[in-house]
Amino acid sequence: MVGSRVQVNKAHKSRYASKSSRDIHRTFGADKTRIAKSNNVIKGTRAARIKWSKMMRDQKRAAVLKEKRATGGSSSPPRVIVLFGLSASVNVKALAQDLLMVLSPEGALQKFNTVASPNYKLRTTVLEAPYGDLLSCMEMAKVADLIAFVSSASAIHDDDYIDEFGNRCLSVFRALGLPSTAVLIRDLPVDTKKRHDLKKSCTLSLASHFPEDCKFYPVDTKDELHKFIWLFKEQRLSVPHWRSQRPYLVAHEVHLVAGDSGEGNCMLLLSGYVRARGLSVNQLVHVSGAGDFQLSKIDVLRDPFPINIRKNQDLMDVEAALEAQVLHSLLPEPSKQEPLIVENVPDPLAGEQTWPTEEEMAEAANMNREKSLRKKTLPRGTSEYQAAWIVEETDDEESESYEHTGDGMVLEGQDEPFGEEEASGSELDEYQMGETDRETEADTLMTDGETLTREQIEDEIRKMKTAHAVDEEFPDEVETPLDVPARKRFAKYRGLKSFRTSSWDPKESLPFDFARTFAFDNFSRTQKHVLAKALEVDQGIEHECVAAGSYVRLHIKKVPLDVASKLCGASRNLPVVACGLLQHESRMSVLHFSIKKHDSYESPIKSKEALVFNVGFRRFSARPIFSTDNINSDKHKMERFLHAGRFSIASVYAPISFPPLPLIVLKSEHGDAHAPAIAAFGSLRSVDPDRIMLKKIILTGYPQRVSKLKATVRFMFHNPEDVRWFKPVEVWTKCGRRGRVKEPVGTHGAMKCVFNGVVQQHDTVCMSLYKRSYPKWPDHLYNCLGLSSAVRRVPCCPVIFLRFRSEILLKAIVQWLLLRMDDGMKEFQQMLIEVETEAEHLLLARHQMVENDRIRNANREAMTGLRRKAKTTKSSVPTPFESIMKEVERSESKTLVKEICKTCGNHDAKEHTWMMLPGSDIFARVPFHAAHAILEKDQERLDYEAKKLQSYVKEKSFSISEKGALSDKISPGIVRFMVT
């Protein structure tokens, strides 16, 4: 007999419950005062739950009915069906004609791709995606309510159902966000069994490429088309979330009205149905490929495609119904209309980048408060004024250590300073300008595809591939040049004690382009307010708006004439879309995208390379810089190339947009802008100009002699001065050792280093340096389809106007240039006036610098005279309270540390001295100590103003020099002739 013989009884249901808790639901006769647990509360909560469930059910039902009426009712806009052929063998045009034939009423003309079917109670717009045109297919997918993928069942192999172009477009559609989808199968055989088997084979082959809810329909016969249309009518359509946040209009008609102002602008008229949300006449609108504009008027027209048409209406009445008839018009209110602001207008003399912020002022106040609370050992009878002159021993030690510090650069996160700045500032500035020019040339070499031959383009692509391979194998490593000192070549770089924890001020040394951008104090809160305001417009709270589904005509003002004419020509093959912008979405800022390289793109993508960004309905040119995404740090490492297989962050100057928005990056190959390739895809991450992207370089050296923890490293630098300059920066090895530079050895750049472990002879010694990188400002933002719409910036001439020696020469050259030009006379004249104004501002700044230098030299001479009179040097150690010190010294056993005045010395500090007060012609008699204190304070102020003026002059020179020569109006020879 197998098993245990121990009897196991059933456990009691009460388990660990006590007797009191077990009988709490009972009321005994002996204890009448005890109140049993009431079920009223349970009944009340149950009733509340039932009521709440019914309310939620009713709300969902009402929302579904509202959505159904909005998408399929008589007041809803026509549903857009995009027919996309998965291979070149599919005849999409024949299928579109069959669909329009089935949907059109009997005897009606098929002049338009939009039809209203009274039989199906449905209005539909049928668009044919042209095979091979990626841009057109992408623009149609942005506005599609249903993408019908058409496949041919006559393919020999399963791989022939979708060809290479079909796969590329499918990846683009997925990145944009797929709306509702369906697969239409054509060319099925007549035999029933073969037809069923071939349909099943085609379905199995294509099912993995589409969502799970995607349906497959055969559409060879008229009955099958009827079945598809009935199912399409009852289908609940889903669209991407980013499309439902903004109103948009797919233009049925595009016209332009020339303006009378003669400024080259016109009025663009777009007619179509308002979709997704209500559109306000006070909103800004974005026209795809053209830019952002204001509305001058909205005309609400009679619906040209009504569902209910009288049966006895003849063809002439139908054509008359299609004519536009204005029901009413909406005009904007000047006080409520959104201003068309693109760039911020900075004040060049504000010194906004050098003035301390409120946080810095608060930090300085806290430091001063801590210093004031620090206890000092003072002699008896010493007043507060006298105590201020007594310096503690720690302060003396700090000052001495600072004076004896060697040369070097500033290391962030380390208390030890790197030394005095002995290098010439003008030489460094000149060299940095040269380096910036060389980097700019290297970054923009491939952007000028029209001026390069095919062999030159292929050679540059080959060089970029080589550089990309080197960057993957040896990331961030650079060679120290032999002909240029490293302290000058890498003058813009600095060392960091810790990349994660060391501080880096986001407002420090910003370029001039950053002053033209906008930033938000709290971006998430602003986005919430903006979306709430858009919801109010959609709900009809504002009177100057039209509801979704209305047929309107938009009057878009101040559109460049050449842009409008090209849009009219492109509207035959490409849908022209006008999108209503949310608040602030026309202003420039720094946008950050999460981006990944497309699998089909094999060429390298370099930072600051010209690319075409498709963000929602927007399409613009940009030159991004790529960086990593560090979650645990406020600093992010810049990447020179966009590497495949992982996500990076692309930062660009672009108009503000609120996420979520998809991103498709296109790149023209071999200078062909009409056949771009899909380079990358992603989505909008954030809008933040303060995001810090640091370019990292690694200087490498090799151990020559190793002795335990010490090593002699060579080939990192080529002279001992560079070793002393970079001495405070920490070094590390590829095998995991960390150390520091001890001293230079010899005259060829070798150095002694001490590490925290034994260094191997085959190891490599590295030093990391960083500098902040910024994206490049786009010259032509909306120039993706040949539509020349530049960013709203003042066109300027090159830097040749900065060095004209007299105003007469400038006027003579301007007159000569105006006589030689035939086209664009007013535009060029205005351009020269703007450049002349900027040059005058720059000249005034230089005059102020000269005046400041004169006053500074005078102050230095006065200080020298005072020191000569007092017979002191900077290292003298006298005290103005010598008598008090002697009396206290007699009473105390311990000697006191005497206070030092570097200028007064043993001279009487209270001796009256005549001096002219700074900034006036007033002479006054002041004590000797007060005289030199006033001069030192005034000298500090002049030094600060001089730095501000130098920064302004440098930025202004860069901003004018970056605008380039007018190659289309002035030949390079004339430019060289005009430069002094």
UniProtKB/TrEMBL annotation:
InterPro entries: AARP2CN (IPR012948), Bms1/Tsr1 (IPR039761), BMS1_TSR1_C (IPR007034), G_Bms1/Tsr1_dom (IPR030387)
Family: Belongs to the TRAFAC class translation factor GTPase superfamily. Bms1-like GTPase family. TSR1 subfamily.
Protein name: Bms1-type G domain-containing protein
Alphabetized GO MF terms: GTP binding; GTPase activity; U3 snoRNA binding
GO terms (BP aspect): endonucleolytic cleavage of tricistronic rRNA transcript (SSU-rRNA, 5.8S rRNA, LSU-rRNA); maturation of SSU-rRNA from tricistronic rRNA transcript (SSU-rRNA, 5.8S rRNA, LSU-rRNA)
Gene Ontology CC annotations of this record: nucleolus; preribosome, small subunit precursor
Keyword annotations from UniProtKB, A to Z: Nucleus, Ribosome biogenesis
Bias-annotated ranges (Basic and acidic residues): 20-30
Main location as per UniProt: nucleus
Organism: Aristolochia fimbriata (White veined hardy Dutchman's pipe vine)
Annotated Bms1-type G domain residues: 77-238
Coiled-coil positions: none
Compartments (UniProt record): Nucleus, Nucleolus
PANTHER family: PRE-RRNA-PROCESSING PROTEIN TSR1 HOMOLOG (PTHR12858:SF1), RIBOSOME BIOGENESIS PROTEIN (PTHR12858)
Span list, region Disordered: 1-30, 394-440
Extent of Acidic residues compositional bias: 413-434
